[in-house]
Write a structure and sequence with these properties.
single chain, 130 residues, alpha+beta, three-stranded antiparallel sheet, 3 helices, 20% helix, elongated, ARF7EP_C, ARF7 effector protein C-terminal domain-containing protein
Length: 130
């Protein structure tokens, strides 16, 4: 009986079970799953059929077709204020690489004094009439 209880005891695996943060960030299966989810959630205005996105070089594609290099801090004059991207090395990429990204950051809350919301300078969602 003592042997069976000893076999049932929890043994801490230590660092062997820890997933490195780099591996978790660039997990291909997780990226595919989250991309599928984003595409399903994205709503498209059928009057223009424009989906805000970034091209293969990381440029933001505006509704009129012009491409603009824009940092994820949403300041038009920013040369890049983030850590270098793990995939492309650009300092413009914030939480995810901008190359072929199929979504944009519309706005975010700054924790400065006074707190405020910074909005995307080139994107304004069309207001739908109910």
């Amino acid at each position: 009986m003592h042997r069976e209880l000893r076999n049932l005891r929890f043994i801490n695996p230590g660092e062997a079970a820890v997933i490195s943060t780099k591996e978790a960030l660039y997990n291909k299966q997780g990226v595919r799953r989250s991309t599928r989810h984003r595409k399903a959630v994205t709503s498209v205005d059928r009057t223009t059929d424009y989906i805000p996105h970034h091209d293969e070089e990381g440029y933001y594609v505006r509704a009129d077709g012009h491409c603009v290099k824009l940092c994820d801090c949403l300041r038009t004059t920013c040369p890049g204020c983030h850590y270098p991207c793990g995939k492309c090395g650009s300092r413009m990429c914030g939480p995810a690489c901008q190359k072929n990204r199929d979504y944009i950051i519309e706005s975010f809350f700054t924790e400065s004094e006074p707190p405020r919301i910074r909005k995307h300078p080139y994107y304004s969602p069309l207001k739908r009439e109910s």
